[in-house]
Amino acid sequence: MTDDALLKQLEESTKDFSRHQAETLRSILQHQRGVRYLQRHLPGAGDHNFLIDAATFRLSVPLSCYDDYADYINQLADGDKCTSDDDHDHRHLLSVDPLVCFFYSSGTSSMKPKLIPYFDSTLSKGASHIAHQGSAAVLRKFFPPRPEVNKRLAFIYADSITTTKGGFKVMAASSFPLHSSSNPNRSLFMSLSSPMEVILGSNVEHQMYCHLLCGLRNSDSIDAIHVPYAIGLIKAMWVLESKWKQLCDDIEKGILCSVINDVRMRDSVVQVLGGPQPDLSNRIRLIFEKKDWGGILSKLWPNVRYIRSVMTGSMKQYYSKLKYYAGEVPLVGGDYFASECCVAINLDIKQPPDLTRFVMLPTAAYFEFLPFDLAENNVVGEETVDVCGVEVGKVYEVVVTTYRGFYRYRLGDVVRVVGFYNSSPLLEFVMRAPKTSNEIVTEGDLMAAMENFQLVLRNTMGMGIEIVEFTSSADFGSSPKRLKILIEVKDCDMILQDKLQESNLRKCCSDLEDSLGSIYKVQRNKGEISPLSLSVLKCGSFDRLLKLAIENGTPASQYKPPKIIRNPSIVDVLEENVIVTI
């Protein structure tokens, strides 16, 4: 299908959202009527003549979260057969389609990713095809392919896959096309500056170094830079800042530094280097020696046309830094695709995070909207509305019924309906939903407060102070409870040399507490919360968190530093590296 045909099909699908949604739900329920999960709530669902409307479905099937599926998912992962006599096969616990593998979720607040079953569903493939292919067509519309400059520097990591007790592979959803041996997506490798051996490596730090090295070797051929999440490019830039001399040496000599010990990766990168490149090395070295990192990406890759990444949600904090590195190169936003299903597509990809809007896809899943009160940081009851009931300006938690085994599933994303594209809701991503009702700060309020805190720090202590990462945790062991905020700054020596005087830091901390949002302020004014605790950590502390997450199964390509930590043991890991606490 041509790009014009794809975009036309996408456009047409948004014109009658309600009808497409009704057809999508009917299709899902007809196809999955034999699954055990649905039969628990819909007696007679297994009947071939089974029909049900959306209202009855919402009345009969309760809202669900991951815990409601955990036992079934564990049975599937273990390969267990159902013990109930009325179940024919373990595959029918959640879907009638065969189970292919599991995807890891991208959530990292607990450091233990969830397993999302991936069923071989023809209907789901058809539904997601327009989303993924449509997204690619939108990108090509803004940036038509150039045969002469056709390489992409992509910081992707098809992490080493694991296997469940039942023999099913577990991987990141983004890794699936790269691990599949019999699909045309292998041609993806042909457009990338890095060889397959780098992408399929197992050491993230080494892979990142090799991505940079291969990208620099192909500097004149790089058309675009891709990274799943903005934090991935920020980390790559930190490697570039600290390792540029070694990178230049490797290009000059045509060999790879001895630190990279993966033989297959080494051999493939040496082949890309193609022998000593002294002229290229000198050219790149001159750029670095100027020590001007503003617009560095366009200086190193003069033909790059855009940088693509997810920059909304918790990734928004990195946007200004990416703009600094990118200079005049456009930053292009991603789509709203979850591990469970595609939700919405970004048709205006050049907009900054604050103005990014997503057009919902009516055939990707059946969607409901659970009203959410930002002032209370909680949903309003458990009664959802469909697309006919949403109101512009109102905030909702997204609920999905998918082709792949989730029914009235709370996705955990809070969005605002800002308008309509034809008849399809236009969404603004607000934040991740709170896990419990007793959380004392929202992700959105925390991020806004930290953005203001960075400005206060610079105004009070000088321009050299830069917060590179932060997180928070509620200490319910204190009486009354206390919010802890932990930050890492770029130059730890400034703290060790007393450049962050305690009195100045305490004043900044007070300003931070004043900007933490209404939910925090109300409880603080009532005396229900102790004064804020602010800790400054040693450099590299959050890298330990990344390593811990990867050790616990989180794919490196999907890692997002948690803004609210709910696991005390993770807080303990960070607090081992505290320099000063106010």
TrEMBL record:
Keywords noted in UniProt: Ligase
Pfam families in the record: GH3, GH3_C, GH3_M
Keyword ATP-binding recorded: no
UniProt keyword Ligase, yes or no: yes
Domain GH3 C-terminal: 446-568
GO cellular component: cytoplasm
GO MF entries: acid-amino acid ligase activity
Annotated GH3 middle domain residues: 358-432
Xref: InterPro entries: GH3, GH3_C, GH3_M
Annotated family: Belongs to the IAA-amido conjugating enzyme family.
PANTHER family named in the record: GH3 DOMAIN-CONTAINING PROTEIN, INDOLE-3-ACETIC ACID-AMIDO SYNTHETASE GH3.6-RELATED
Protein's name according to its UniProt entry: Indole-3-acetic acid-amido synthetase GH3.6
